[in-house]
Structures are given as structure tokens and as C-alpha cells.
Design goal:
The structure is a homodimer of 268-residue chains. Chain A contains nine helices and 16 strands. Chain A is α/β, with parallel strands linked by helices. A nine-stranded mixed sheet of chain A has the order 3-2-4-5-1-10-11-15-16, with helices on both faces. Chain A has a five-stranded mixed sheet with strand order 8-9-12-14-13. In chain A, strands 6-7 form a two-stranded antiparallel ribbon. In chain A, strand 8, helix 8 and strand 9 form a beta-alpha-beta unit. Chains A and B meet through helix 8, strand 12, strand 14 and helix 9 of A and helix 8, strand 12, strand 14 and helix 9 of B. Strand 14 of chain A pairs antiparallel with strand 14 of chain B. Chains A, B: Belongs to the peptidase S51 family. Chains A, B: One of its GO terms (molecular function) is peptidyl-dipeptidase activity. Chains A, B: Keywords: Carboxypeptidase, Hydrolase, Protease, Serine protease. Chains A, B: This is Cyanophycinase.
Chain lengths: 268, 268
């Protein structure tokens, strides 16, 4: 993350509190929000639905930008719309539609440039979250921690060195996240529950929402073996379960602070 | 574990290789095996089925011992049968039936005495595995890592300082195991996949079978907060995924060795 841009990465099924936070970060009544429903099979309907929700939540201006083909993603028309945005929101659907349609296009390059130049808020939910990472989980929900229980591919790399999974607790996806970081221990595995998000700032992210973020770090593992089939061995990995208010330092690969002291006291 | 007795703790759905290993450890053609189906709702059927399987696998002598009430568990008749056994096998079912029916009875005391005196092999699968631990998971499969996503109670404490979960990968139970160790960080969380087992020896256990054993250790956690409801915070826990051949040192809370070098080379 460069400039003062921020990423708001949601694990799916975001409730009004998280969506409001996005609107607020984008400037509330002065926000200019662009919704991109590339991941969706029904981009018109999905885009219009999110646009309507952001208007209801007080966003000054909202529009859905149609980017459903590589031709549209390379056409100059969208540039002015995106350059003017204070907040850009990627909906859910299929993350491989996002990487397949936007990957390497003028829009892809422009988005990276806008974030580097800042300030803009880039948000995504579900598939729109998955594509943010350097390496993206594209599928696999098999039981067990095995090489073939997860499929991965390159994401759009808005948040490098991280591998995001979503609907995390709801779909019991720890096995596939462990499988992925065992294969790619350079990447931090970040599993985001539904109605939960990470918000980046500087070198850290903060957890928002009603669920938790599970970070799996194979960096400290003393022994990793990934046979072509059958169970993976992964000894000495670290795991952090972080609810709202917790902060995680990415280059340090460690949680920094817990929830605010008020919540800490209530919990004690 | 005292004497030279061993515990063979299976995660459910044990295949012939694991069941054969039990028969072999109990003495094969000279084995005297006792099956206890207390956990089952149909103890006669379940007990007879396992007895038949152990006979097919070459056990010298096998019998099912009916212990379906506290009266039976306190009656003197079973003592001679158990004293003569080289292998004792607890079937699956409901672990709370085992602790409710056997807990504190003459049979409970006798089993602990036999294991301390050794050598005998005490095996259990599924519910028969869960009850082995100091603290036992009795239920809870809710999504997320929360205090109310797991229910626990005392086990029969054949393997103290450990909290066993079974059908682990197949039922996506990491959330509940994390929830349990966050509440009770003294206990090592040991999640055993189906057709997979741990075999204790000295201060260690070895992993057997086709799946993996996942060990979750909150002992190193730097921050644990368990609110009455809502997400748990657990920072800095350790996780190990251990397939067959791996060994784990219990008091040291660490994996000792990976699979044999031959397997290591094949995996490389």
C-alpha cells in the first residue's frame, strides 16, 4: 500500500455497518463511489443493487461501471469515471472472472496507479476480496490438508504477500488455507469471516465487523512437506484468530494490538 | 502413560490397516481382545461387529463385554475379563454415554490400574477416542471461533493434558478445537482425521493412518480473550499438521520427527 489509499477487504455477506464504513471512508455525502460487478454473472442487477444500498447509506454519488469484457476493460471510457472516484467497490461472484476480464488491461493498470497515487478506498467482498491478494484461491473445498484440496492462481496483487480466503468460518475453510500456505509459505493466509473485513493502513490491517479474521503463518514452520497426493505435513506454523479491533502488522507477521481497552475490560 | 501400555486413539472410520495394527499390538494370534461398546445405542450389534472384524484380522481371542449401565460397570463379573485382556477397544457412539456410565465405577478404576501396570493396549475410535482425553469435547459445531461453538466436559483422562477431537478434517472441526484451546490453553488440542490414529509411547505419540493429526497449541499464545459471546481473540497460537510417520512430544509440545527418510525422499 502506497500513498494514503486504503483497502477494505470483506469476507462476504457484509452487513450495513461494514458497508456504511466504506461509504464513510469514501467521503460520505461527498463520496463518489464506483461499483464494479465484473465477478457477477448478472452484473447489471448486482451492480445496481449495491449502488442503491450505498445511496441509502448516504453516499453523495454512486454509479455502477460496466466492465464485463476485456474490450470494455481496455476502452478509454471508464478511465475518467475511475479517476474521479473516491471509493471503488468490487462485488462478489467468481474471482476468476475478475482476473480473467481485468487482468493486465488498462483498467488494471489504472487501478494500481490510482491506489499508489491515493487517496482512494478500494473495497471488495467475497470474490472481490479474493482477487485483492498476490496469490488467490480459485477453488477446492476437499476435506483434509492436502495439495489437491486447494487450487490457486495469481490475484490482482493489490495486497501482495497475502493469500485471502473468504466466507471463512461459515464454510469451514481452514483446511484449504493451511494447504495453500504449506505450498506457498511466503504468503500469509488471511481467512475472513462473513460480515467481517480487514482495513489496511500503512503496513498493518485492522479487523472490522461481527466475525473474526484467521491468520495462518507458515513462515515459522520448521518442517513442511507437500506430497503430490495425501496429507501435507506442516509443523510449527502459527495461527491467530482476530476479532474486531485487533490490528495485524503485515511485514512483522504478528498481531500488534487487541481490541480497545474498553472491550478488553468487558471481555474479562 | 505408565508401564509399557499404549493408547491407540482413532479419529473414526478406521480402515483395515489401523484395525490390524491394533490386533498386532495386542499380540495377533495370542491377542486377547475385549470390545466395549458402551458408547453405542446398539451395543450388542456394534460390539459383535467389531469382535467379528478383529477375528477376521487374526486376533487369537475376542469377546464383547457388555457395560451398558453403571450397575454392570460396578459389577465384579467384568474384572476377570479385563484383567486377562491384552487389548481393549472402545467403539464409537456418544462419548457422554462412556463417561456417564463408566465414570468413577470399578471398571474405570480398574482400567486405569491395568494401564499403569501394563502392558495392555487401550484403543478407541470416535467417541471411544474423545473420552481418552483429560477434557473432552461433548458437542458444538457452530461456525466461527466463539465460546459457545464448543461444549466440553471431563473425559476419563487416560491421556491427560490433551483435548481430542475426531472426524476432524471430514467435519471441519478446527473452529471448535480452536475455541476449546482458547478457553483451556493448558490442554493441547489434538484433532484426528478419519482412518487416522495416534499411538502413544513414552512421552510421545506417533501418527498412523491415511489422514493427518492437527495439533493446536495455545500455550505460546500472547493474547487470548474469550468473551461470553462473539468471536474469540487468540494471537500467537501454534498449529501442526502431522501425517503418518510424524511423532509429537507431548510435554515438549512439539513435533519431533517427520515421516521416515524414505517417505521424505519420495515427497521431495
Amino acid at each position: 500500500m502506497e500513498g494514503s489509499s486504503r483497502l477494505l477487504i470483506m469476507g462476504g455477506a457484509a452487513g450495513p455497518a461494514l458497508l456504511s464504513r466504506f461509504v464513510e471512508l469514501a467521503g460520505a455525502a461527498t463520496a463518489r463511489i464506483v461499483v464494479i460487478a465484473t465477478a457477477s454473472e448478472s452484473p447489471e442487477t448486482t451492480g445496481a443493487a449495491y449502488a442503491e444500498r450505498f445511496r441509502e447509506l448516504g453516499a453523495g454519488s454512486v454509479r455502477a461501471l460496466r466492465l464485463s469484457s476485456r474490450a470494455e476493460a481496455n476502452a478509454p471510457e471508464s478511465e475518467a469515471v475511475l479517476r474521479d472516484a473516491t471509493g471503488i467497490f468490487f462485488t462478489g461472484g467468481d474471482q476468476e472472472r475478475i482476473t480473467g476480464i481485468l487482468g493486465g488491461t488498462a483498467t488494471d493498470t489504472l487501478l494500481h496507479g490510482l491506489i499508489a497515487g491515493g487517496p482512494v478506498v478500494l473495497a471488495g467482498t467475497s470474490a472481490g476480496a479474493a482477487m485483492m491478494s498476490g496469490t488467490m484461491i480459485t477453488g477446492g473445498d476437499g476435506p483434509g490438508v492436502t495439495a489437491d484440496s486447494v487450487r490457486t492462481g495469481p490475484g490482482l496483487e493489490f495486497l501482495p504477500c497475502v493469500l485471502i480466503d473468504q466466507h471463512f468460518a461459515e464454510r469451514g475453510r481452514l483446511n484449504r488455507l493451511l494447504s495453500a500456505v504449506a505450498r506457498y509459505p511466503h504468503e500469509l493466509g488471511v481467512g475472513i469471516d462473513e460480515d467481517t473485513a480487514i482495513l489496511t493502513g500503512g503496513d498493518s490491517f485492522e479487523v472490522l465487523g461481527s466475525g473474526a479474521v484467521t491468520v495462518v503463518d507458515a513462515g515459522a514452520a520448521t518442517d513442511i512437506r507437500v506430497p503430490p497426493s495425501g496429507p501435507i505435513a506442516l509443523a510449527g506454523a502459527r495461527i491467530h484468530v482476530l476479532p474486531a479491533g485487533c490490528t495485524f502488522h503485515l511485514p512483522g507477521r504478528r498481531p500488534v494490538t487487541g481490541p480497545q481497552s474498553e472491550e478488553r475490560e468487558r471481555a474479562a
